[in-house]
Amino acid sequence: MPDFVAYSIIVDDLVFPDGRTQMGVLGGSGPQTAFGMKLWADRVGLVGGVGHNFPAAAWAWLEQMEIDTAGIRIYPQHPTLRAWQIFEEDGRRTQVWRSQGQAIPDQLALRYEDLPPGYRTARGFHYGVHPDHPNLAVAHALRDQGVVVGIEPFKHADHRLSDAELRALVSAAPIFSPNLYEVETMIGPGEPLAQAHRLAAAGAAIVALRLGADGSLVHRAETGETWRIPICPATVIDACGAGNAYCGGFLAGWVQTDDLRLAGLYGAVSASFLVEQVGLPPAELPAQRATAQRRLAALQPQAEQIA
Fold first, then answer.
1. Strands 124-129 and 148-153
2. d(CA 293, CA 241)
3. Total Cβ atoms within 10 A of residue 171
4. What DSSP character marks residue 131?
């Protein structure tokens, strides 16, 4: 059974700002998050729904990466979920569903009672939520079982959250990892350190605030410990999925080391692999783990603690 679990599967059709497209990319955040975990942990599982036409190449990648697929539900009456992912020059992304009807709620359903028993007692579980109406029941149920849960918004908020909405969201799981734009839509503008403190004041135990090319800011409310984590140098081809890989690496790092700085560094290294090509990296795990260790060693001296 897996020690770490990621959620959500979609086949993405990517549209880049210059008009280029890349069709049929395995995405939905779960596979990218699972890859970020897999660099640091042997036993990783994936939860989600797929249809009758889930690509053979996607199954092969999961098998080659040795990702546990017991949590994947197959819906023979539906095609696999598919969506346009439209990217703008300023980093904004718009998702437009190509799938329709009952296929969407069926395959996106995330319910504690539907998880394989071994997934309910994993060491760590990560999933994305809609900030305006988040599914927090899973986080609460997993926390009751002693699972360390990480959540991230999978989109920006459509309205500024009330104090009660914000507290319910950020306190549902031990780790909350938004990007800066998502935070601004939830609580208004502010510089990153102030935003991390605002989230902590609202009830977030650990904030891993993703800042794109500026790296990340990680903060622990209980101790006040805060680190600026730089990006891990890489040749950027496509940044789609890097945030998800960061979250997977961060969760695996935190659970396994109990070290906030190392968790942030694990996340940065995981993200660096996702930007180096369109879609997921090839399934070359032994070589990738060796590269990850080299990148981690080079990046460690660059982390900066904030008093």
1. parallel
2. 21
3. 16
4. T
3-state secondary structure of 178: coil
C-alpha angle 17-108-170 in degrees, rounded to nearest 5:
80
Residue at token pair 């805060």: 226
Helices 30-38/242-257 angle, 10° precision:
40
Query: d(Cα 76, Cα 165) in Å, to the nearest integer?
Result: 37
User: Residue 168, exposed/middle/buried by CB under 10 A (0-12, 13-18, 19+)?
Assistant: middle
Straight-line distance from the first to the last Cα atom of the chain, in angstroms, rounded to the nearest whole number: 40
Examine the pLDDT at 92 and tell me if it is beyond 90.
Answer: no
CA distances from 137 to 113, 215, 303 (A): 11, 31, 35
Strand ranges (E), 205-283? 206-210, 216-220, 226-229
Q: How many angstroms separate the most distant Cα atoms in the chain?
A: 56
Q: Closest by alpha carbon to 30, among 57, 6, 66, 4?
A: 6
The span from the CA of 277 to the CA of 274, in Å, is 7
Query: What residue type is assigned to position 301 of the chain?
Result: P
pLDDT tens digit sequence for 240-252: 899 999 999 999 9
* Tens of pLDDT, residues 267-299: 999 999 999 999 999 999 999 999 999 999 999
